[in-house]
Each structure stands twice: as structure tokens, then as C-alpha cells.
Design goal:
Structural class: alpha+beta
Shape: elongated
Number of strands: 10
CATH topology of the largest domain: Porin
Strand order of the largest sheet: 1-2-3-4-5-8-9-10
CATH class of the largest domain: Mainly Beta
Number of domains: 2
Radius of gyration: 29 Å
């Protein structure tokens, strides 16, 4: 004979109505607690191999906002590193697909491909005042957008499952926070809008990259390595599906995500290396300073500050992920209980 789950018995006793309470309400409350307790007990009966020695796999998709921290845009005030210069108005949408191999629920290796776009412009700080330290960026009047095509290989670590922080039955945590780190490869292409047309900036050498006159300004590649670092939390919807919320920032080895890095160059140099449409575009897009700006409140002149070379750029995402688990089977809770009883010593 199957034992009655003590969980719903205790709950029923604690909430049992006082004498005189109508019988139909007593029965209703009992049934509610019975169903709730059985759901709690049976929700996570998975194949033993999942917890002991088997690899399982997961495939999924994600979507969420993407933003960046570069030399362009930011917030009113003196430019700062990190999230202090984050401006939500530069947010765009990104998405990805991924495939993971998971070992004993606590360690996963994930391959993920993502698409997105980063963008910003100095006009976001239009309320800047000279006393706030950002009037120079506003008068600089630069803007950019750059598509991001990325592939990453990351490791995912779940401490609750690693340290066996589970419920008394020994099942994996329903909600599992985790950390993630790895390596990635991405392609970007900074562009600026000129008379309604998006112009690629890297071929224009806007800061003299690769020009003999500026030996310290090196040509940059549009294909780069990044280091994704982040945190997330996973919620098990069922034996087959889970839901995640994940934040990942990418540490970059470039400061040219927005095509801005150092100083303005002498515009007469462009004619030595460029011609035709490229020359015309370079002259217009290198220096886009506001014509009505106070000369004392701008640096848009040769050797004037155009960007901050001391900090590399970065970009980050906050994604909601839906995962489908392959290789994990949900089994009947009664058969699992029978197997556990058979493996346990009998004292009576």
C-alpha cells in the first residue's frame, strides 16, 4: 500500500478548520493542499543518471537588450568607466542560439552564436553644461552604430548543485544561480550616418590609422577576440524545459568599437591616402563638431582630444533564454519511491 505523503498531512492538520466549519470547505482545503504537496513531491523525479554520471544536453534560444560602453555618448558629467557611464537610450535588441553539454548538473560547456548591434551618439548628452565636464563630448557631436556577429565558447558553473545544496530528497535545485566565463570571437563594423546613408568608418582611417604621419595610430581589425563574463539564474520549468535570465559583459582588446580612440589629425593628410568619395567622407566624418560651439568648449582641432585611449570599449547583454533539455527523462514518482525503498535497509 502506498504511503501518504506526510507533507500534505502536516499542512492539513495546521490549517484544519475549527469545529462547526462547513464540511464542503474542509474537503476543498484538504484537496488543495493534497494536490499542491503532490506537485512539490513529484515535480523533479528525474532519471538517476542525470545526477550521478551522465552527460545531458541542452539547446535553446535567447533574446534581450544589448548596450555598450565606448567613447561616444554616455551620461551627463565627466566621462567615467564602467556602468557609471551607461545610457539606456543606446539600448538595442540582440538574440542568440546555443547548445550546451552539462555534466552532473553543476558544470556546462556552451557554444553560442549571437547577433546584435551597438550604437550611441553624443547628442544624448544635450543637457550638458560646461561645469559638468561633458560639454566637450556634446560639442564633439560624434555618433556610430556597429553590427555585432559573435560566437562564444563558455563554461557555466552552478554552485548549488556542486555543493549539493538541494532539498531533503536530494534532487537538484529548482532555481540555480550560476557564473559564466569563456572566450569569444566577434566581427564588428563601425559606421556613421552621412546624409541618410551609413558609411563604414574603418576604411576612412579617421584618426590616421596606418598613416606614416601617425606611427602610434595602428590600423585595427574588424575581427577580434573577446572574453565573456557574467552571471545568471536558471529556473526548471519541467524535465524538458528551463528558463534563464543572464547578464554577460564582454571584455574587449580594442578601443575602436566606435572608431574613436585618440586625437584629431591634420585633415590635409587624408588626401595623401584617400581619393574620390572616400576622401570626401573622411573629411566630413573625422570632424563633426557643432558649428555653433564655443571654441573654448571643444577640442575638434588637430591634436585635440577625440577619445580616451586609456580604456578599451565593451558591450554587454541581458538575455532571457529558453532551453530544451535532451537526454533527461522524467520517471514516475511511485517507481522512483519503490526503488529507493528497495535500496534502503529494513528495520521493521
Amino acid at each position: 500500500m502506498r504511503k501518504i505523503n506526510p507533507l500534505f498531512v502536516n499542512l492539513f492538520i495546521k490549517t484544519y478548520p475549527k469545529p462547526g466549519f462547513k464540511m464542503k470547505y474542509r474537503i476543498s482545503i484538504f484537496l488543495i493542499f493534497f494536490c499542491f504537496a503532490q506537485q512539490l513531491k513529484a515535480q523533479y523525479f528525474y532519471d538517476d543518471n542525470y545526477y550521478n554520471n551522465a552527460l545531458i544536453f541542452e539547446a535553446g534560444i535567447s533574446i534581450g537588450p544589448m548596450n555598450s560602453l565606448t567613447d561616444i555618448g554616455g551620461r551627463v558629467g565627466k566621462g567615467k568607466g564602467g556602468v557609471k557611464d551607461f545610457n539606456i537610450k543606446s539600448t538595442t535588441l540582440s538574440g542568440s542560439i546555443y547548445f550546451s553539454a552539462i555534466y552532473k548538473s553543476f558544470l556546462a560547456l556552451r557554444l553560442e552564436g549571437a547577433l546584435g548591434r551597438v550604437q550611441s551618439n553624443d547628442s544624448l548628452i544635450k543637457n550638458a553644461k560646461s561645469s559638468e565636464g561633458s560639454i566637450g563630448r556634446y560639442n564633439r557631436n560624434l555618433s556610430f552604430r556597429s553590427p555585432i556577429n559573435e560566437i562564444t565558447l563558455t563554461a557555466e558553473f552552478h554552485p548549488l548543485d556542486f555543493f549539493n545544496v538541494r532539498n531533503p530528497e536530494g534532487y537538484a535545485a529548482t532555481i540555480s544561480p550560476y557564473v559564466i566565463a569563456g572566450i569569444g570571437y566577434f566581427h564588428f563594423k563601425p559606421q556613421a550616418n552621412l546624409n541618410g546613408k551609413w558609411i563604414d568608418l574603418q576604411p576612412l582611417h579617421t584618426e590616421g590609422e596606418g598613416f606614416a604621419e601617425y606611427p602610434n595610430s595602428k590600423q585595427y581589425s574588424l575581427n577580434q577576440i573577446n572574453v565573456p563574463l557574467g552571471i545568471g539564474v536558471k529556473y526548471e520549468l519541467s524535465a524538458k524545459f528551463n528558463l534563464r535570465l543572464e547578464y554577460i559583459t564582454r571584455v574587449l582588446n580594442t578601443d575602436y568599437l566606435d572608431d574613436v580612440h585618440g586625437t584629431y589629425i591634420d585633415p590635409t593628410v587624408f588626401s595623401k591616402y584617400l581619393s574620390g568619395v572616400q576622401l570626401a567622407d573622411a573629411l566630413l566624418l573625422n570632424n563633426r563638431g557643432r558649428s555653433d560651439a564655443d571654441p573654448l568648449m571643444t577640442t575638434t582641432h588637430p591634436n585635440g582630444i577625440r577619445g580616451n585611449p586609456n580604456n578599451n570599449d565593451s558591450y554587454f547583454t541581458v538575455n532571457v533564454k529558453v532551453g530544451f533539455v535532451i537526454g533527461r527523462e522524467k520517471i514516475n514518482s511511485w517507481s522512483r519511491s519503490q526503488r529507493r525503498q528497495q535500496a534502503s535497509p529494513r528495520f521493521f
